[in-house]
Amino acid sequence: MPNVSRAWPTLFVSVLCLLAGGAAACDPSGGRDARPSASGAAPASGRVDLLAGDWRHLPGGTVGSGGVRIHGLGRQIVLQDGTGGQPHPPVNLRGPRLEVRGDFQVSATLRRPAGQTASLYLYGEVPIVYDEWRQNRRGLRVAVSERELSLTVWDGRSAAPVADRTASVTSPATVSVTFERHGGDLVLSAGDTRVSVPDPGVFDAGSVTFGVDAVPGAPDWTLAALEATARDGGGVAVRDTRMAGQPTQPSDSLRGLAEATGRRLPIGAAMAAEPLVSDDGYRTLATTQFSMLTTENALKPQFVHPGPDTYDFAEGDLLVDFAAANRMTVHGHTLIFGEANPRWMQQVALADRERVMTGHVRTVVGHYRGRVAEWDVVNEPLSPDDDGPDGRPGLREHLWQEAMGESYIDKAFTAARAVDSEAKLYLNEFGAEADGPRWDALYALVVRLKGRGVPIDGVGFQSHIHEAGDHIDPAVLRSHIAALAELGLSARISEIDVYGESPRVQATQFAGVLGACLSEPTCTSFSTWGITDRYGSTAEHDSYPLEPGDELPWDQRLRPKPAVAALRDTLRAARR
Ligand code: XIL
After folding, report:
1. Which residues face 118 on adjacent strands?
2. Annotated catalytic residue within 380, 433, 520, 551
3. Phi/psi of residue 69, each to 5°?
4. Which helix (H) or strand (E) holds 110?
5. CA-CA distance, 471 to 460, in Å (whole number)?
């Protein structure tokens, strides 16, 4: 009998190497110090070279011969009004993920110029990112500054760290640090200095995703080496990010059934980069069920344009490349919006706002020209207050409207069209599915835009149903889609999610709205705002762990609710 426990590290590495295919090639000949090979693969057995993976998509990172240079971006997530500010350090979402079992060790060599603090994050769970907050789950930070070595640990039960240990050191310019999970402790050492905390189970999910940070304005630091080694019967292996899902979809998936309708209607969902790379079940639902991807938060101004002269396309590119790898059309959300704007943008002087707005539109649309098929150019132009001066909502008051009045809408569409003449340009709004002042105001607005020759192609009906008793009447929605068609405009269902107290009522609502879209030839797509309650936008984010909402078709355990069957039935009924 082979000694199973002794054979385990090699077995674990080999099996994972096989699973990962060519992506993380492993050398069965064993144990030597692995360096990146020309192909970027990491030959290893029991020891893996993590820098051999993909670090090209790390925000603020630059890959060079000496390692990965880290530039401090100072990323923060602010509240809608620009106040607050939660640190949002970059995660190497597209980079190597370390699979771990039992005890292991990660060693890093950091080249740190004076005045800089080098931070390396090891995430046991990838953070969940929304546009007003980021929920850090289990993970830890290793930080090295001039005089201090520190280990900060989060256990996923609260926003605050569960432990924060520091030790005084005199760091040389190049410092090697070793982090270990060993015998129930998390231990960090550099030379003779050592700090340790009991492990609250940071890596119990079996993987480590890496992130970094640097002080903005201080000179860049360099991650010169990063390796992992199995210890005492544990195992390590590298798994690279999977961008492609299954090449074919089950014929009874939403996208499969939709492709069989006379309309071949795109079926979409708002998606986020973090769960796509870290949650296999989420990724599988994304690729099997949906043929369209809406960028949930990644292309909102706060994320994509963090500084006046800084654009950060890493997460947006991940989504767009993911969509391409899985034959999905991309709907870009959103160029201009009164929310989710970075603080600097909210502070731009009135006289400069038009220049900043059109520059933003041109740069983002230009970056994705040919890859993003359609855009929400302007999101939620109407005031949330329905009782404006003439009994209807007026324009929503925000930084762009304040500077340019209604003409900000014209200017945003004109700028987008000038850069990409092929992309379909949408105006997106909530609460216009029913008759009443919101619909009247929206209709009047698009009549004015058309009258002024604004290059608008269509209107998105968000279709959020967030209150018990609230509902969308499919016949009324159809009449609105038809009224827009009379003006030469398309429509789409852009963000549906439905209050889920009664799964039956929820199912009827999803299906009714899909039926309305299928019945109107100018309805170009049907998209939900998210896939599963596990990452739903209505989650109660102040609680740890997250307290999910119940608005989406798949529940938090990724089980389909009756809504999924109802959507399928509606698509089946529309088959050619
Ligand atoms: C939501 C996001 O999904 C959340 O992550 C965020 O915290 C708040 O915004 N209408 C829109 C979307 O157009 O941008 C909103 O997205 C949901 C309502």
Report:
1. 144
2. 380
3. -80, 135
4. strand 104-111
5. 17
- β-sheet bridge partners, residue 307: 310
123-173 confidence digits (pLDDT tens): 999 999 998 899 999 999 999 999 999 999 999 999 999 999 999 999 889
Answer yes or no: CATH 3.90.650.10 is held by domain 254-574: no
Q: What is the pTM of this model?
A: 0.92
Residue 540 a catalytic site member: no
Q: Is the pLDDT of residue 11 over 60?
A: no
* Ligand 1 neighbours by CB, cut-off 6 Å: 130-132, 296-297, 379, 462, 495, 529, 537
**Which part of the chain is CATH 2.60.120.560?**
7-239
Which class for 294: exposed (0-12), middle (13-18), buried (19 or more C-beta within 10 A)?
buried
pLDDT at 3: 31
* Of 437, 439, 526, 521, residue with least CA distance to 480: 439
Query: How is residue 369 annotated by DSSP?
Result: T
Cα gap 454→485, rounded to integer Å:
16
CATH 3.20.20.80 residue ranges of the chain are 254-574
Do the Cβ atoms of 175 and 144 come closer than 8 Å? yes
Question: What does the pLDDT read at residue 193?
Answer: 96
Is residue 453 helix, strand or coil?
Answer: coil
CA of residue 537 to ligand 1 center, whole Å: 6
DSSP code per residue over 5-26: HHHHHHHHHHHHHHHHGGGG--
At 527-553, the pLDDT tens digits run 999 999 999 999 988 888 889 999 999
Q: Decide: 48 and 238 in contact? Cβ < 8 Å.
A: yes
Query: Residue 175: what residue type?
Result: V
Where residue 60 falls (left for φ over 0; alpha for ψ -120 to 50; beta otherwise) is: left
C-beta atoms surrounding 488 within 10 Å: 11
Query: Which residue CA neighbors atom 13 of ligand 1 most closely?
Result: 379
CATH number corresponding to 7-239: 2.60.120.560
Is residue 71 exposed (0-12), middle (13-18) or buried (19+ Cβ within 10 Å)? middle
Any catalytic annotation for residue 380?
Answer: yes
CA of 470 to the centre of ligand 1 (A): 19
Average pLDDT over residues 278-286: 96
